[in-house]
Specification:
By secondary structure, this protein is of the alpha/beta class. The chain folds into two domains: 182 residues, Alpha-Beta Complex (Quinone Oxidoreductase, Chain A, domain 1); 139 residues, Rossmann fold, CATH 3.40.50.720. Helices cover 27% and strands 26% of the residues. It is built from ten helices and 15 strands. The strands form three sheets. Strands 3, 4, 5, 6, 7, 14 and 15 form a seven-stranded mixed β-sheet that branches. Strands 10-9-8-11-12-13 form a six-stranded parallel β-sheet, sandwiched between helices. It has a two-stranded antiparallel ribbon with strand order 1-2. The protein is globular, with a radius of gyration of 20 Å. The termini are close together. Bound molecules: NADP nicotinamide-adenine-dinucleotide phosphate (NAP). NADP nicotinamide-adenine-dinucleotide phosphate binds next to helix 1, helix 3 and helix 4. Keywords: Acetylation, NADP, Oxidoreductase. One of its GO terms (molecular function) is quinone binding. This is Tumor protein p53 inducible protein 3.
């Protein structure tokens, strides 16, 4: 089968499409014929040699995929049958014609959703759902500040905050991105490049600050984050786009607010945790992707690249030019 591949860590130019062995489903695993996958920042880090796949995971890039069930390993419980349209949360291997996945990490493709849209759901939406509900324990009426609001995770988080009857506000680096976040449901947005987001957040919340911060930026934002966190607020760190170094009196500032810092990584969580997360998402969120649902959730696809243009897809994300998800379409081949 064909798969995205690189021989040595480095820039996007190191990527190419290679013929590799088709995987075989193991105990309790399903073989999926991939129609589309999507890019994540983790793919960029892995390509640079800075985020190796967890033990036992495929070393092929790709943390999510959508396609059809093409095979069942021993011990599968009968939840899935050949030909079912599915989307998969993966520890790796999605940017290939076939991938294997534990049956409990699959979700049905919602009615009215294409494989291209479905590929944009698992990693970003499950991450945002996990951060808001499992980690941040979001409550109705709370205000949530979402950094990198126009990112794949950010656009999902905005809609999930609305679904939880809470108020999303965002930061982003361009006016175009802020406009997209407003269309997705953000109540306010601030351009961190030319305005002080902390002042703006305090003005928006009439001085009280936000209940939750979803932060994938890290180091460069720490002081402003603490200044606009409400007393007893939760600061959820799930990425370090600006680095992880902090200089200053972070602990005293945190203590004065009785604030708490939470951190989370999805990829390295165990199989059972991911199964619980997927199950909760299927029950509580998936129905809202279908036409006519209210509110109607939408996976936001920025652009679609065929697998053989994987280099250009990585470049676009590395240059922060995407709004929402970059989807990789697999070559059409008979089974
Ligand atoms: N912990 C987990 O389980 C988990 C899971 C999935 C993703 N993540 C993390 O979530 C983040 C978003 O992922 P994604 O795939 O959705 O990303 P994405 O779509 O590529 O968006 C990332 C955006 O972040 C902004 N950004 C980049 N560097 C920045 C900096 N130094 N300061 C401020 N903003 C910066 C850029 O937008 P602007 O133009 O607005 O600057 C960029 O477009 C990444 O950090 C990723 O590693 C974590």
């Amino acid at each position: 089968m064909l798969a995205a591949h690189f021989d040595s860590p480095g820039g996007p130019e190191n990527l190419y499409v290679k013929e590799v062995m088709k995987p075989r489903p193991g105990e309790g695993e399903v073989l999926v014929k991939v129609s589309a996958s999507a890019l994540n920042r983790a793919d960029l880090l892995q390509r640079r040699g800075k985020y190796p796949p967890p033990k036992g995971a495929s070393d092929i890039l790709g943390l999510e995929a959508a396609g059809s069930v093409a095979g069942l390993g021993p011990g599968c419980t009968g939840r899935w049958k050949i030909g079912d349209a599915v989307m998969a949360l993966l520890s790796g291997g999605g940017q290939a014609e076939y991938v294997t996945v534990p049956e409990g990490h699959l979700m049905p493709v919602p009615k009215d959703i294409t494989f291209i849209q479905a590929a944009a759901i698992p990693e970003a939406w499950l991450t945002a759902f996990q951060l808001l509900h499992f980690v941040g324990k979001i409550q109705k009426g709370e205000t949530v500040l979402i950094h990198a609001g126009a990112s794949g995770v950010g656009m999902a988080a905005i809609q999930l905050v609305r679904l939880a009857n809470a108020i999303p506000i965002v930061t982003a680096g361009t006016q175009e991105k802020l406009k997209a976040t407003t269309n997705a449901g953000a109540a306010a947005g601030f351009n961190y490049k030319n305005e002080d987001f902390c002042e703006k957040v305090l003005a928006f919340t009439q001085g009280s600050g936000v209940d939750i911060i979803l932060d994938c930026v890290g180091g460069s934002y720490w002081e402003k984050n603490l200044s606009c966190l409400r007393t007893d607020g939760r600061w959820v760190i799930y990425g370090l786009l600006s680095g992880g170094e902090v200089h200053g009196d972070l602990l005293a500032r945190l203590l004065s607010k009785r604030g708490s810092i939470h951190t989370s990584l999805l990829r390295s969580r165990d199989k059972e945790y991911k199964e619980q997360l997927v199950k909760a998402f299927i029950e509580n969120v998936l129905p809202y992707f279908s036409e006519g649902a209210s509110p109607h959730l939408q996976p936001l696809v920025d652009s679609i690249y065929p697998l053989h243009e994987i280099v250009e897809a990585h470049r676009k994300m590395e240059e922060s030019k995407n709004i929402g998800k970059i989807v990789i379409e697999m070559p059409l081949k008979s089974p």
